[in-house]
Structures are given as C-alpha cells and as structure tokens.
Amino acid sequence: MTPFVFNTSPSIQFGAGLLAQLGEIVKERIGARILLVTDPGMMATGIVERALDALKQAGVDVTLFSDVQADPPEAIVLQAMQSAIDCAAQGVVGLGGGSSLDVAKLVALLASGTEMLKDAYGVGNAKGPRLPLILVPTTAGTGSEVTPVSIVTTGASEKMGVVSPVILPDIALLDPELTLGLPAHITAATGIDAMVHAIEAYASGNANNNPLSRNLATEALRLMGAALERAVHEGGDIGARSDMLLGSMLAGQAFANSPVAAVHALAYPIGGHFHVPHGLSNALVLPYVLRFNTKVAPQPYAEMAPYAFPDLARLEGQERAEAFCEAMAGLSRRCGLQQTLREMDIPRDFLPKLASDAMNQTRLLVNNPREVSEADALSIYEAAW
What phi-psi label fits residue 252: left (phi over 0), alpha (psi between -120 and 50 degrees) or beta? Predict the structure, then answer.
C-alpha cells in the first residue's frame, strides 16, 4: 500500500433539528461574538432567522453578512473579511450552499490578518492561523463542510482555489431538515454534483488516491444512487434528504483527499462565462467525460457502478463501465436537468474558448485517469452541445 494522507473536519455533528442547538455549540466552541456568513436566497427561506434566534438565545452577539453571490468573486470575500474585522469576531459560522461555506472559510483565514488572499491561492499556500469556524450546509451537494478547498472567481470568469487543511472547519453541523425546502431542480443539480465528487475521487489519478477515500466514495454512491430521485420528486422525504446530506458529506471527505479531475475542470469555464450553477455545469459534461475516460480506463468505473446502480452488477468489465456512463446520464435526465449546452444558450462558436480555458485547470486535469488535451476538451464540449 502506498503512503497517503487523509484530513477531514475534526468534528461532524449530524441530526434532524440540530440547528436549534447552534447557539450552544457556538458559545462553547467559539465564544460570544461571531460573523454569520450567508446569502440573499437563504435570507428568504426563514432558516437564517431560526439560526439567529438560536444564537441570540445562547447570548451570542451576531454580525450578519448576507451578500454572498454564487461563484463568489474576490470582492465579496474581502467585504465579508472586513465585516469580521470590524465586529472583532471571535469566530465565523457559514450557513448555506457551497458558496457561502467557501466564503466563510476564507473569512476565518483572512480576518486574523496574518496573510492575504492573493498569497493563499494554490495548494498548501494558506498557512493560518485562522479564526474558529463552524459550517452548516443547506444543500446536499458540495461537501464543502469537510473539504480543505475554497473556490473564488477572479477577474471576469477565471476560478482559483485555496487548498489547505488549515481551512477545514472545526465543526461540520449537518441538519437534513434544512434541505427539505430545496426546489427539485436545485436538489437534482447539487445531488449530481455530489455524485460526481464520489465518482472522480474513486477514479482519481492523484498519488493520494487511498483506501479511505475509495470506501467513502462507494458508500456515498450507495446512499445517493438510491435516494436522489426520491429527494427530487418527493422533496419532503426526510429519509431521502438525510441519505443525500450524509452521502454528500462522505463524497466531500473522499474528494478532499483524492481530488477531482476533468469533469470539474470542464465545468468551471461553463459556470465562469455563463453563470450556470456549478452542479448543473458538472451534470452537463459528466456523461461525456465518463465516456472519454472509460475508453482507456474502465476499471474504476466498473468497480463503482453497482454501488450507485445495483442492477449493473450483472455486467462485467468494459460493458459495466459503459453502462455506468449511460446510467448516470439517465439519472440526470429523470431528475429533470438540462442535457445539452445549447439548452443553456451557450453558442457553439464559443466552445473553443471553453476548451482553452479548461486547460488552465491544471490542478484538476492532472488527476484525470486519462490525459486530456485541448482538442479532447473541445470534442467533449461538442458532444455535450
């Protein structure tokens, strides 16, 4: 067995209704003065009010930053950081989807004043220390509550990542009741996103691909493969919502240590240029990247296929790997997601620009089980168009 490193959030707390205990948890772990980071969409759900009530009942003084945008730009990160400095926050709580959690991570890192955002980009460049940090996901998708990654939009459309175990939160607090109100389309897109995390982690060509990540990935696929359609079509099914939230977290732990690859690399330019939500961007290119990979590296996909789709156990080898590609495409279709780039009003003559930009995602492309050239990327985009 080759050496590996596995990092995750030191405390994971899971349970329906757990948000009501947020104040007590914050008071014990952080103190009496925090910055709460969220977004305008969350403000409209009533969940933020519930969180504020729990915090105030525990005597916690809260400054609210609710201006997080999807694919957050650097300016938003810096505004949130300044809010934390201005209120002398003792710690940070992130509440919402992946964008809010990613911003909260960076606020905790930067508000201590020991480093600058531009110096933190890349792998292992964020050194800390940081403020105490608690993350509360409200979607079953990104797994950000257990990943050492924060993605920021730099310039007009480029995305860069801060990757460091320093930004893993102290506590990941998972309450499946917070996902009950998610619309079907968001449930579907974030759910496919989480399954992509598990798939890419399992098949990753990264040197740190390890037995823990692979086992977490297959368990994530087992849970989500059985639960996603129920969560989409029967949104009040707390069992399905629980399985999706737990599966998303397990997939997050997997790819946090065995990193994702070409699906994400090709999805990022779609989101950057056309503001397509990240989960949907992944779903749009997923079947085509899988088909590209399985032609030369079918084994990992054949191995994981029966966890997500038990009936595929009857097949073997290449046939099973190819059936897995089609099963994932079918799942996306049944969940009501758009299936082509043209449905997202992406012009065909823009595909070469997407391919060129995808090549900048070297941090991800090196993990793909099959090398991807710019011509390959263009062919994948054309197939997805």
Answer: alpha
Cβ-based neighbour number of residue 212 at 10 Å? 14
- The candidate with the shortest Cα–Cα distance to 357, out of 102, 122, 201, 160, is 160
Is 3 a domain residue? no
Mean pLDDT (the chain) is 95
User: What is the pTM for the complete model shown?
Assistant: 0.95
Per-residue pLDDT, averaged over 279-303, amounts to 97
**How far is Cα 169 from Cα 8, in angstroms, rounded to an integer?**
9
Rounded distance, CA 242 to CA 251, Å?
Answer: 14
311 Cβ neighbours under 8 A, 6+ residues apart: none
Cβ contacts of 115 within 8 Å, gap of 6 or more:
109, 126, 127, 128
Higher pLDDT, 114 or 256: 256
Q: Is the pLDDT of residue 306 over 80?
A: yes
* Sheet of strand 91-96: strand arrangement: 11-14, 171-174, 133-137, 91-96, 33-37, 61-65
Q: What are phi and psi of 70, to 5 degrees?
A: -60, 145
The candidate with the shortest Cα–Cα distance to 174, out of 222, 142, 131, 217, is 142
- One domain, residues 230 and 139: no
Domain residue limits at 148: 11-179
Answer yes or no: do 199 and 125 share one domain: no
Please tell me the distance from the alpha carbon of residue 343 to that of residue 19, in angstroms, as a whole number: 38
Model confidence at 156: pLDDT above 80: no
Report if residue 4 sits inside a domain.
no
In this structure, which long-range contacts are made by residues 41-50, counting pairs with CB atoms below 8 Å and at least 24 apart in sequence? 41/96, 42/66, 42/95, 42/96, 42/97, 42/100, 42/138, 45/138, 45/181, 47/19, 47/95, 47/138, 47/178, 47/181, 48/95, 50/19, 50/20
Residue 119 lies in a domain: yes
The answer to the question of residue 5 being in a domain is: no
Low-confidence winner among 84-98, 143-157, 237-251, 370-384 (lowest mean pLDDT): 143-157
Sign of CA dihedral 209, 217, 106, 161: positive
Question: Coil, strand or helix: which one is 174?
Answer: strand
Query: Strand, coil or helix: what is 65?
Result: strand
Res 272: pLDDT:
87
Instruction: Give backbone dihedrals phi and psi of 167, rounded to 5 degrees, phi first.
Output: -95, 5
